[in-house]
Structures are given as structure tokens and as C-alpha cells.
């Protein structure tokens, strides 16, 4: 099917997510949709899938105007989308997920069809299992099978490689090529990762700040693509600000610690962390890195072993003791877990910095807003801030005397510039001997900023290596449970 | 033997309105909507059913009226709540009080009157069976309805495509939307349908189980119990019905105990279900608290025993779904 | 938006809601065969028709204000303290219990002690609901509601059991208190200036706590995002229990005042549904403290006026509750429609 976008605009309040996009997509080809975070890639694709409507402009399928597109109509037209965060039903069984919104058949036929498709693409899924038990990669495979069963002609994959293993990625790419070549499907691969787009796509479309800036044929030139993605000011890969050497001595020690999570247990962690040291935590979602961060923050209980900060034992103590000792945790979902949506910036500062105990070292609200260049006033609510401003607000709210910072996905969803600002600030803190542990799905980010890399697989810590001793590729292999034993 | 059979028959009868209301609310909450107005709705429906039956002389007409009342309050809940985006709990609570007062106000002329009741059906074939006969052979039609609906809804919820879609809408409305399921339409439909069953429970009270109307009617508090049973039942029709019969048993037991021990003050029996309600909710919820999980880590046996009772609510329960407001 | 614009907007909403409920009530009266205008006249004459009636209305206004402002404390962290009804009852029970050892009267100090006992009783009952919520994950709606029924059962048991009147136990309550333990009213009114002052103090206390203290800000933060509140070290569970207990204390004070100031004994219906009515008041006021006193007054007028309905028109007195409920429901409807309309306008 031929898809045509005509002068598409999409505004969210004052934010212009898409501006005047004109684009034609032909059947049987694999397109890459490239752009940094916030460039408007997902928005454009969500409009094609009928998930949201353009503020202005038209989408044409085979020359016919698709007005008032919604997901059910888009599916009927043959457009299917694999969303970045799996859009499925964790509480339901695999086969029920496959059945929902799919072709009408009875249970027996549904099961046999699921098995047939799974075999064809070499996906191993057990139909009676709950989806919540699957890995992100398996959930994607299930979604893919469902869309293929619906006979979609245009398949959109929104950042499908975040959170899946290398093997799963290779399987996915093979399937994509097969579908485009043998079945004449149009495939749109949305990503901000150059290498993947170069590997898979025949044509690439680059978006920057909501505008279409280029449509190029393979082979691609990396330099040119980078320039198109980031504009002239950012030439190469993230230029890394100066990283200081960690200080001396063992500031934090974990001895055979066993952590209890809501869903799983993380056994036998032993670690030493020096002041000012930066540790990057790599692993597929749910592999244990979340629990380690929460355990170090005092939010998950240590059932065994010893956690020692500055020579003092902390295991079994309440969260507040950890906090008072200078340990600060920032969760991944900023507005959902880290901020109070309807409270003002001023109120956030008041809550974060109680007037007594050392309040003087901390920022006053006006100072904080200025120093962290937060686009807002004292009375602005947290809800009204953009993602970057929310992240800067969270950074501003870190107490001055913090000795250990624990961050989940510090730059997720931020554009290049905002991400850079975050790292500038964090590295500045580490220079003052604050130790930092961060998790990220972006291995390049881990490689760029950490002194040491911890790799998690299958709810275990499988590797603890200095940065220079491991490459990004090797990280990927270890995360997928392959490669050397440590 | 006879005594036991009669007791069981009494439990089935006393439990019928509770089962109907619980099934209705289970449907509604499975779709992701909380209709908190049960206690008021049941009273207003009971009053309407009795008044209509009294005026027309036809109890079946009364039953139809009770269904209409249940659907009407459900319509208000769904309109102001999920459709217009105000708090579902608030609307439900206001309706609880409003419907109760409305029932007392409009029912004033019908209080303490003799009116028609639903007939007792005797089922040929079943009524002559030993032991089963006295339990299931002679019952009010609402009892048969409550039993039939329990099994039907269980089958329907877990074995049909429509039931699957209902569960999907209450779990992940956005994912359901992305698959072309009409989320808002289903939610409205099941809230109304659930409301109809809740209304029916009111009719079952005033036309069969506690016939007549008055202030108080005797059904006060039943709505709250039903709401708690929905949670206790883990949003599962069979388990919910079981919960309803548990409370009915308590009620029947109360009557016997009162006869046995006339010295005990009557209020004790009237309020007894409510501490039990709190305890049942504690039983199904305490397993998910942090302190309990720590305890369970030390004593695994405790965890195994309690996890059998533990329930999980539909993931999107009480959350609005409004695609036009996305940001 | 400026304060004046916001104020006139909420006034406009209120007017629309009043109109809607007027239409509904009129229709309701026509259906039940009562003359609407005459009924409204009786309602208002019954509430403010004479100085004595005005006094009665203010006597109802006092517990309503106490409970409504108390509920602001529990609504701030997002709690539905439906159990407030039982907290009033426990306040009354504790106050009565405190005064029972003095059948021959005692000094005013004992009276003050009874008020404090009432506050402890209410706080205790609310504390249970709070702990059930925080340590047992039993939603406060169910915990509170269950405790309401238990409190009612407790009252009935006391009145018919250990505290029954010598001779006959009856629904008319316990033996009246010795007159020296009555909160003295203004001459000719059943209205005590002490109660009035306490109610006013309560509302100012709540405003102060919520607007000017870190504790109040923490409550709001807990209501906005409990998980974030935990991370910020605001101890959400502790805040929830505190808010509940303080709300319960004020409700308990209302209950104690009903005993020593109004009925001078413990009655089965001692709470007069004021807790539930106060929930409606707070919602109608959209949780804004400055709207609470006027709304409480209006509701009190309806409550007192409706006593005349069965006497004069053979109508059930629950009409006042119907009007109150419809009014709050209307404001929700108006609010929702207004938002929907704005949304449609923005999308055009």
C-alpha cells in the first residue's frame, strides 16, 4: 500500500510536534525514521496508526483520503503499529492477547494459528503463560505475530530494539527483511540509533524539531545523517565532558547482599564503590539493576549480607536513615514517581529542603530555577513543565550534601541538548566526590560516562568491569546471557 | 437433615439480592468503572419496585421498574464520571445519599403497606428430590436468576470473546483502544448493565426477600457489603457469589442465634456483618503490604496460605479513559 | 486567571447548579403532589423564620462546620473519610462516658474534660480507619463505613445495655446529664457561645494548617503523589494517619458538643448524619475553606426547615437531603459540562 502524508501538522498545546510534513512511502520497502528524542517521530507514526489525529493536513492510503482515522479504521486499512512500550495486557494470557482485536475465531483455532505463526518465524511463546511473565522482546514478538495475523500491509515499529537482546534483535531484523521482500509490506523502522538504521533500511527519513529535513537512499553516510539529526551545532557523537578520577578509599561496601523486590530476589551482590566513582548499570528491563538501585536507596530490604556506608552498617534500616546519610534516588518516571504534578516549583523546593537540618547549604527556589535554567516561575506547576525541565527540576532538588546518587535512566526521553546538560551537572557533582550509579537502556551512554560497568542478566549481576575493559558490543552480549563468565 | 436443607434454602434466598448486586458491580468494575452508589441505588430500586407493584398489583412490573432505576443511577455515574471526567467515587457517594433520601421521600406514602410479592416457583423434577428438593425446589424466581447468572457470567467473562474484551478494557484501556476496541462504549454499556443487576437486587429485596417498604427497609448497608464482596471475590463471579453466600449465612445464623440467646442485644446482630466485612478485606489485601511480605519471607507457610486469598484489581479500575484529552 | 475572575466563575457555576436543582426539586414536588412554592416557603420559614429558628439553625451549623473543615484535612492527602460519621458518634460516647461518674454535677472543668474525651474518642476511631488503610490496605471508604456501623451498634448496645436508663431502656437515650454539666446556651436558645467559638476556631486552625505549615504542604504532596512523597521523606503513611486522627478529633468534638450542648444525653441518632452531610458540603465547596461556612448555613437551614414538612405537608423530612444531594450532583455536572465545552472549543 502506498502511504502519503500531506502537509501534516500536530500541536500539543504550545508544543509543535510535527510541522508541515510531506512524505510518500512505497510498498515493499524498509524505511528508517530517524531523529533524536522529541523530534516528532512517534507523533507522526501515531497519526498513521490512528492513535491520534493531525491538527492539520491529510493522510492518504493508495491515494484515498483517510479522514477521522482511529485505530480500528487504521487496522482495517492495513496499518499496524508496534509501540515503544508494549501495548498489551500483562494480566491476560498470551493467547488471549493474541485474540484481542484480532480475527474472530474460537479458542482452538486461535491457539493453532498462534502456534503456526510462531513456528514460521521461530518465536517460542507458550500460549497459556501470562504476558507479565514474558520479557520485553517476547512481548514484542507476540505483538508482531498478532499484527501479521491481521495481514497488515504497513508495519510501524517504534524503537523496537530498546530493551531486547542482541539475538532477539537479529531475529527481528531477519523477519523485517523477509516481510518486505517476500510479501511487499511497507516497513517503517523508527529509531534514534544510526547503526541500526544503516543496517536495516533501504531509505531513511530524518526529522528534526518536528520538521522533515531529509529523505535519503541507502547507502548512507553517517556524518551526514548525524548532521541532519542534530543540526550543525552537534557534529559527532556525544562529546563527553571531562570525567574526573574517583577518589580513594572504599566509601560503600556491599557484602553478599540479598535484596528482596516486589517481583523477584537479587542474590549475592558484593560491590565496592569509591567516592566520586561513576557506575553504569546495563541490563534488559527487569534484570536486577532496578532492584540494586532501590536496595542501595533503602527502598528494598536486604534480607542477607551487609551494606556499609562510610564504615556504618545500614542493612535493615528504614529509608529515611539512608536519605539522611546522603543517599538520593531519582526514579525513571519523573512525573509519575518523582514530582507532585499540581504543586508549584516553590512548593517542591520547600518540600525537598526542610528549613532545619542543613537547609542553608541548599538552593533557594529562585536560585535553583535560575541556576538550572528551568523554564518556569515559582508558581508554575510541575505538570506544566517539559520533560527536560522536569529532569532539571529533579536535579535542582538533590540536596547539596548528597554522597551517593542513584539514577534510573537519567536522560530517557530527553533530546540531545537536554541530555548533555544533565550529564554536565552530574559530572560536576562527581568531581565533588559524590558517587553515582545510573541505569540506562542506551549502552553508548553507559560507555561514555562510567568508570565501571555492571551488567545484569536474569536477575543476577554477571559482570563488574572497568570501562576500558569492555566494548559496547560485549555489553550487549553479556546482557543477553552470552559471552564470558566472570 | 430437614433443618439443614431449610437453612441452606434460607441462605440461598437471603443471598440472592447480594449475589445480584455483587455480580452487577463485578461487571461494572471489570470494565474499569466504580459505581459506588450501590447502597442508595438498592434502596431506591426497592422502593420503586414495591410502589409500582403496589399501584399496579403486578410484582413483575415492579421488578422492571427496579431495573430501570438501577440503570438510571448507573447512567448518572457513567455520565458525570468517565464521560465528563469528574471523580467516580464522588459521584457514586453523592448518589448513595441522594438515592436513599429520595427513596424515603418518594416512598413515604407506601411505607408499612401490604403489597404484592413475587410468586414462589416450584420446579417439577427438582422439588421431589430428597434433600435437594427443599433447597432448590421451591424458591423465588430471583433466587433462580441469581444462581443462573452466576454461572452464566463466569462462563461469559472467561470463555467468550466479548468477555475477553470486557476484561481488556478494564485492564489496559489504551492498549484496547490501539486494537480498535471501542473502550468508552463498552464501559458505558457495562456500567448500565451492572446497574441493571444492582437495581434488580433492590427489587429482589422489596418483592421477595424482605418484602415491603419502610424506613428503614432492612436493606440498608447491603450495598456497601456488596461492594466489599466484589473486592473479596477478586472480581470473579463464582468467588463473589461465594462471598455473598458467606454473608447470607452470617445473616441466617444471626437469626438462629438471636432465638437461642435472647439476652444478647439485637444491635449486635445487625452490625456483625460490618466488622466481618473489614476482616475479609484485610484478609485479601494484607498480603500485598510491605511489612507482611517481610514476615512472609521469614515464614513461607504463611505466605502460601494467604496468597490463596490475595486479589488483584483490574489495572485501570477507576481511571478515566479520554483519548481526546491526551497530551 | 485573576482571583476575581475565578471567584465570579465559581459563583456562576454555583448559580447554574442552584438553578438545576431547583428545577429538579420542583418537578419532584409536583410528582409527589405537593405545592412547590409553598413547600419552599415552609422550608425557609422553618429555618430562618424566627430568631428562635435561626438559633436552631446555627446549632446545626456548628457541627456541620466542625466536620466540614475537619474533612479538608483528610481530603488534602486524597482520603475519603466516610468514617467521620462514626467518629462523631465515638466523640459523643466518650464524652458521655467521661461524664457518667458525675450524676450529681461537677465543675465546668469536668465539662472541658468531656470535650477533650470526645476529641480523643473521635481521633481513636479515625486512627483505626487510618491504620487499616496504611497497614492493611483496606480502603478508608470500607474501613470507615464499617466502623460507622460498629459505632452505631456500640451506641445502641450502651443505651440498651450498660448505660440504659433505670426502669425502661428506650430509643430516647441515656439518663440526661445533670444540668450543671450542660453547656449553657444564650438565654432562650439551645445555642452555646462556647460551641460557636470552637467551630470558628476549628475552621481557622484548619486554614492555618493547610496554608501556612509544612505539615499541610506535606499532606497535599501525599495526596498528589504518594510515591514521590515517600522519596522526599515525607512519611506518607504517618501523614495519612495524622490527618485522619486530627479530622477524627474535630468530628469527635462535634459529637461531644451534641451531647453536652444540645441533647444532654447519648441518643442512637446522636450524629444526625452530620458527617455524611459534611462530606457533601466539602465537595460542594470544591474543598475551599472560605465557602464552607455559607454552604453549611444553607444546609443547616434546609435541615431545620425540613422538620416542618411532615407536620405541615405530610411529606418526609428527607427532602432536605434530596435537595442537598441534587445540588452537589448538579455542581459536578456543571463543572464537567463546562470542561467538555472548553475542550471542544479549543479543538476547533
Can you tag this structure with a few keywords?
heterotrimer; A: 486 residues; alpha/beta; Rossmann fold; 2 domains; six-stranded mixed sheet; 17 helices; 33% helix; 26% strand; globular; C: 348 residues; mainly alpha; 14 helices; 74% helix; 0% strand
3D structure, described in words:
- The complex is a heterotrimer of chains A (486), B (327) and C (348).
- Chain A has 17 helices and 20 strands.
- By secondary structure, chain A is α/β, with parallel strands linked by helices.
- Chain A has 2 domains: 3-230, 3-Layer(aba) Sandwich (Rossmann fold); 252-479, P-loop containing nucleotide triphosphate hydrolases (Rossmann fold, 3-Layer(aba) Sandwich).
- A 6-stranded mixed sheet of chain A has the order 6-7-8-3-9-10, with helices on both faces. A 6-stranded mixed sheet of chain A has the order 16-17-18-13-19-20, sandwiched between helices. A 4-stranded antiparallel sheet of chain A has the order 2-1-4-5, with helices on one face.
- In chain A, strand 17 (404-408), helix 15 and strand 18 (435-439) form a beta-alpha-beta unit.
- In chain A, helix 4 (107-120) packs across helix 5 (136-149), helix 12 crosses helix 13 (365-371) and helix 14 (387-396) runs parallel beside helix 15 (416-431).
- The termini of chain B are far apart.
- Helix content of chain B is 71%, strand content 1%.
- Chain B is built from 15 helices and 2 strands.
- Chain B has a single domain, classed as ABC transporter involved in vitamin B12 uptake, BtuC, CATH 1.10.3470.
- Chain B is mainly α and 327 residues long.
- Chain C has 348 residues and is mainly alpha-helical.
- Helix content of chain C is 74%, strand content 0%.
- At the B-C interface, helix 3, helix 4, helix 10, helix 12 and helix 13 of B face helix 5, helix 6, helix 11 and helix 14 of C.
Amino acid at each position: 500500500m502506498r502511504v502519503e502524508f500531506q502537509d501534516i501538522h500536530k500541536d500539543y498545546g504550545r508544543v509543535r510536534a510535527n510541522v508541515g510534513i510531506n512524505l510518500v512511502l512505497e510498498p515493499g520497502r524498509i524505511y528508517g525514521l530517524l531523529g533524536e528524542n522529541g523530534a516528532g517521530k512517534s507523533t507522526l507514526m501515531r497519526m498513521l496508526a490512528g492513535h491520534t489525529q493531525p491538527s492539520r493536513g491529510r493522510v492518504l492510503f493508495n491515494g484515498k483520503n483517510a479522514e477521522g482515522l482511529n485505530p480500528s479504521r487504521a487496522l482495517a486499512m492495513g496499518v499496524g503499529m508496534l509501540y515503544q512500550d508494549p501495548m498489551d495486557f500483562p494480566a491476560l494470557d498470551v493467547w488471549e492477547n493474541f485474540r484481542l482485536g484480532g480475527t474472530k475465531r474460537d479458542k482452538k483455532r486461535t491457539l493453532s494459528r498462534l502456534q503456526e505463526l510462531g513456528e514460521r518465524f521461530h518465536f517460542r511463546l507458550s500460549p497459556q503463560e501470562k504476558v507479565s511473565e514474558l520479557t520485553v522482546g517476547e512481548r514484542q514478538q507476540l505483538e508482531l505475530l498478532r499484527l501479521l495475523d491481521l495481514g497488515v500491509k504497513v508495519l510501524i515499529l517504534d524503537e523496537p530494539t530498546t530493551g531486547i537482546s542482541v539475538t532477539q534483535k537479529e531475529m527481528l531484523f531477519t523477519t523485517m527483511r523477509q516481510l518486505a521482500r517476500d510479501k511487499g509490506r511497507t516497513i517503517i523502522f523508527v529509531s534514534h540509533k544510526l547503526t541500526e538504521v544503516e543496517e536495516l533500511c533501504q531509505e531513511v527519513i530524518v526529522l528534526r524539531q518536528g520538521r522533515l529535513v531529509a529523505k535519503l537512499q541507502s547507502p548512507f553516510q553517517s556524518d551526514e545523517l548525524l548532521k541532519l539529526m542534530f543540526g550543525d551545532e552537534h557534529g559527532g557523537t556525544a562529546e563527553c565532558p571531562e570525567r574526573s578520577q574517583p577518589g580513594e578509599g572504599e566509601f560503600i561496601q556491599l557484602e553478599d547482599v540479598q535484596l528482596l523486590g516486589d517481583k523477584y530476589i537479587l542474590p549475592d551482590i558484593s560491590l565496592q564503590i569509591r567516592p566520586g566513582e561513576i557506575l553504569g548499570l546495563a541490563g534488559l528491563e527487569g534484570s536486577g539493576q532496578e532492584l540494586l538501585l532501590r536496595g542501595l536507596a533503602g527502598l528494598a530490604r536486604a534480607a542477607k549480607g551487609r551494606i556499609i556506608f562510610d564504615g556504618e552498617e545500614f542493612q535493615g534500616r528504614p529509608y529515611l536513615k539512608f536519605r539522611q546519610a546522603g543517599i538520593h534516588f531519582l526514579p525513571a518516571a519523573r512525573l509519575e514517581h518523582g514530582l507532585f504534578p499540581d504543586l508549584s516549583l516553590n512548593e517542591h523546593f520547600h518540600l525537598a529542603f526542610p528549613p532545619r537540618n542543613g537547609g542553608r547549604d541548599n538552593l533557594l527556589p529562585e536560585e535553583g530555577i535560575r541556576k538550572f535554567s528551568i523554564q518556569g516561575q515559582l508558581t508554575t506547576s510541575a505538570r506544566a513543565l517539559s520533560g527536560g525541565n522536569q529532569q532539571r527540576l529533579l536535579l535542582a532538588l538533590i540536596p547539596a550534601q548528597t554522597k551517593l546518587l542513584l539514577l534510573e535512566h537519567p536522560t530517557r526521553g530527553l533530546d540531545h541538548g537536554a541530555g548533555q546538560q544533565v550529564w554536565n551537572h552530574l559530572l560536576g557533582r562527581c568531581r565533588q566526590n559524590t558517587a553515582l550509579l545510573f541505569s540506562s537502556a542506551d549502552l553508548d551512554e553507559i560507555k561514555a560516562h562510567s568508570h565501571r560497568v555492571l551488567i545484569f542478566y536474569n536477575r543476577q549481576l554477571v559482570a563488574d568491569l572497568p570501562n576500558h575493559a569492555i566494548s559496547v558490543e560485549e555489553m550487549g552480549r553479556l546482557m543477553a546471557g552470552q559471552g564470558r563468565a566472570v | 437433615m430437614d433443618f439443614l436443607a431449610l437453612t441452606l434454602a434460607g441462605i440461598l434466598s437471603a443471598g440472592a439480592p447480594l449475589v445480584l448486586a455483587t455480580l452487577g458491580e463485578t461487571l461494572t468494575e471489570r470494565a474499569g468503572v466504580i459505581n459506588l452508589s450501590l447502597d442508595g441505588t438498592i434502596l431506591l430500586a426497592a422502593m420503586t419496585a414495591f410502589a409500582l407493584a403496589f399501584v399496579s398489583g403486578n410484582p413483575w412490573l415492579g421488578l422492571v421498574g427496579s431495573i430501570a432505576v438501577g440503570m438510571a443511577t448507573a447512567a448518572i455515574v457513567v455520565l458525570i464520571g468517565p464521560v465528563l471526567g469528574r471523580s467516580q467515587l464522588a459521584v457514586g457517594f453523592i448518589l448513595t445519599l441522594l438515592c436513599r433520601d429520595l427513596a424515603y421521600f418518594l416512598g413515604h406514602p407506601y411505607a408499612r403497606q401490604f403489597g404484592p410479592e413475587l410468586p414462589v416457583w416450584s420446579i417439577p423434577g427438582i422439588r421431589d428430590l430428597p434433600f435437594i428438593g427443599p433447597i432448590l425446589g421451591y424458591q423465588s424466581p430471583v433466587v433462580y436468576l441469581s444462581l443462573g447468572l452466576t454461572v452464566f457470567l463466569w462462563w461469559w467473562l472467561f470463555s467468550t470473546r466479548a468477555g475477553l474484551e470486557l476484561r481488556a478494557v478494564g485492564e489496559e484501556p489504551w492498549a484496547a483502544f490501539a486494537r480498535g476496541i471501542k473502550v468508552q462504549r463498552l464501559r458505558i454499556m457495562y456500567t448500565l448493565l451492572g446497574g441493571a443487576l444492582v437495581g434488580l437486587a433492590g427489587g429482589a429485596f422489596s418483592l421477595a426477600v424482605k418484602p415491603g417498604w419502610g424506613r428503614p427497609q432492612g436493606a440498608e448497608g447491603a450495598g456497601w457489603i456488596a461492594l466489599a464482596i466484589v473486592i473479596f471475590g477478586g472480581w470473579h463471579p463464582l468467588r463473589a457469589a461465594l462471598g455473598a453466600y458467606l454473608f447470607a449465612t452470617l445473616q441466617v445464623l444471626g437469626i438462629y442465634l438471636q432465638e437461642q440467646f435472647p439476652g444478647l442485644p439485637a444491635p449486635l446482630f445487625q452490625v456483625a456483618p460490618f466488622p466481618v466485612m473489614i476482616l475479609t478485606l484485610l484478609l485479601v489485601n494484607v498480603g500485598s503490604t510491605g511489612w507482611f511480605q517481610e514476615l512472609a519471607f521469614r515464614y513461607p507457610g504463611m505466605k502460601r496460605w494467604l496468597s490463596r486469598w490475595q486479589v488483584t484489581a483490574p489495572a485501570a479500575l477507576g481511571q478515566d479513559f479520554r483519548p481526546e484529552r491526551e497530551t | 486567571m485573576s482571583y476575581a475572575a475565578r471567584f465570579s466563575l465559581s459563583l456562576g457555576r454555583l448559580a447554574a447548579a442552584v438553578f438545576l436543582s431547583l428545577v429538579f426539586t420542583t418537578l419532584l414536588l409536583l410528582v409527589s403532589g405537593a405545592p412547590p412554592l409553598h413547600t419552599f416557603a415552609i422550608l425557609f420559614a422553618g429555618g430562618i423564620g424566627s430568631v428562635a429558628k435561626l438559633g436552631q439553625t446555627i446549632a446545626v451549623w456548628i457541627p456541620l462546620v466542625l466536620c466540614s473543615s475537619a474533612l479538608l484535612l483528610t481530603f488534602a492527602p486524597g482520603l475519603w473519610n466516610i468514617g467521620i460519621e462514626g467518629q462523631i458518634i465515638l466523640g459523643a460516647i466518650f464524652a458521655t462516658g467521661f461524664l457518667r461518674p458525675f450524676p450529681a454535677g461537677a465543675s465546668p472543668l469536668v465539662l472541658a474534660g468531656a470535650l477533650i474525651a470526645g476529641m480523643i474518642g473521635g481521633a481513636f476511631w479515625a486512627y483505626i480507619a487510618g491504620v487499616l488503610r496504611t497497614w492493611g490496605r483496606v480502603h478508608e471508604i470500607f474501613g470507615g463505613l464499617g466502623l460507622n456501623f460498629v459505632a452505631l451498634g456500640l451506641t445502641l448496645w450502651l443505651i440498651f445495655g450498660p448505660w440504659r436508663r433505670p426502669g425502661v431502656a428506650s430509643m430516647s437515650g441515656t439518663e440526661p446529664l445533670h444540668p450543671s454539666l450542660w453547656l449553657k446556651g444564650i438565654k432562650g436558645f439551645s445555642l452555646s457561645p462556647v460551641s460557636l467559638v470552637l467551630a470558628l476556631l476549628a475552621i481557622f486552625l484548619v486554614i492555618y494548617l493547610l496554608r501556612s505549615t509544612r505539615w499541610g504542604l506535606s499532606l497535599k504532596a501525599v495526596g498528589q503523589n504518594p510515591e514521590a512523597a515517600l522519596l522526599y521523606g515525607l512519611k506518607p503513611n504517618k501523614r495519612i494517619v495524622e490527618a485522619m486522627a486530627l479530622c477524627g478529633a474535630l468530628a469527635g468534638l462535634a459529637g461531644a458538643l451534641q451531647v453536652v450542648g444540645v441533647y444532654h444525653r447519648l441518643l442512637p441518632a446522636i450524629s444526625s448524619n452530620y458527617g455524611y452531610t459534611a462530606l457533601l458540603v466539602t465537595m460542594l465547596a470544591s474543598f475551599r475553606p472560605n465557602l464552607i461556612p455559607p454552604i453549611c448555613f444553607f444546609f443547616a437551614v434546609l435541615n431545620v426547615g425540613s422538620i416542618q414538612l411532615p407536620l405541615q405537608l405530610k411529606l418526609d423530612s428527607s427532602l432536605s437531603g434530596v435537595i442537598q444531594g441534587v445540588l452537589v450532583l448538579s455542581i459536578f455536572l456543571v463543572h464537567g459540562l463546562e470542561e467538555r465545552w472548553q475542550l471542544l472549543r479549543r479543538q476547533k
